[in-house]
User: Fold this.
Amino acid sequence: MISKKMEDAINDQVTAEIYSAHLYLSMSAYLESIDLPGFAHWMQIQYQEEISHAFKMFNYIIERDGRSRISQIDEPPFEWNSVLDVFEVAYAHEQKVTGLINNLVDIALDEKDHASHIFLQWFVNEQVEEEATAKGIIQHLKLLGDSKAGLFQVDRELGQRVFTPSTDTAQ
Assistant:
């Protein structure tokens, strides 16, 4: 059985993951509005990933005989200054989420909740990937500078992304 403290903390993270999904969907809409469908598609895949993270946590609470709950989701921003701005905001957001996940791990350790500690390791690893990916896109965008041809190429490349649900059967 999951402790009340751990249950509440993971429930708060479910809400944070759903907010993340909304943020990425809002970014997708912005990117569509400036005629970058590949970038928009990439953000739609991010949306799907964040929703799957929320479900993974939601179901984990239930498996541990806890009660999942959803809190109100704040409205995300919907305007940015540029594609680079979008990805800098996404990168900062992923850094924030990494901090939230690390706090969950700290709670699991304090509570001596070994099952939650093991469960959360998947998210720790996921955050390393999320940050590295966003940072890599930022670096590419900075290298492009004002190159419209380069932006077009990156847009085409990001449009190839496919959502791949986690195959981790332990989750």
In short: The chain is about 75% helix and 0% strand. The CA atoms of residues 28 and 43 lie 5 Å apart. Residues 4-158 form a domain with the Ferritin fold (CATH 1.20.1260.10).
